[in-house]
Amino acid sequence: MGRPSGGNRKEEILEAGLEVFAKKGYYNTTTAHIAEKAGISQPYVFRFYKTKEVLFIAALDRAFERILDAFKKVDAIPEQLVENMIDAYDKLSERHPNEIALQVIGISVTEEAIRNATQEGLTSIRNYTLERFKDAGIQNAEREATTFLARGILCNISYFLELPELIDGKNK
């Protein structure tokens, strides 16, 4: 079995980063942890990602891109748009659960570059959602888009903290 090409290796490092950052957080993760998960040497990580911060931002960008892609694939009549977008996000979350954690972690990191990447990602999702809601003729699209994102963030926090009663109101 041959060694994966550079492009595949970069992808493997990114996916390993997603998993390790999701489990350990930004501050507790080292590039050595990511290298171990990817089955490579630590210096090889730096061949593709100059710093841990650059790798985290790439992983965070991947999470936001997947959300946007999932939303763009939703084909629904206006009355079912919100519900179908929620379903699309639920399915995405099942396939890529580490990305839920990564979004929550991204919100908590204070480094400027990561804050900027988090702001850009959330803004792109909000802008897309708002335009989609407006195009569908959803009443009070601005408020509905804000509520949609707020509930999504609350769902992510609930999942991340293993605290489902934040969403369903039932105690553990």
TrEMBL record:
Domain of life of the organism encoding this protein: Bacteria
Entries under SUPFAM superfamilies matching the protein: Homeodomain-like
Keyword annotations from UniProtKB, A to Z: DNA-binding, Repressor
Gene3D superfamilies the UniProt entry points to: Tetracycline Repressor, domain 2
InterPro entries (alphabetical): Homeodomain-like_sf (IPR009057), HTH-type_Tx_Regulator (IPR050624), HTH_TetR (IPR001647)
DNA-binding region in chain numbering: 30-49
One matching Pfam family: TetR_N
Domain HTH tetR-type: 7-67
Keyword DNA-binding: yes
Keyword Repressor tagged: yes
Protein name, UniProt field: TetR/AcrR family transcriptional regulator
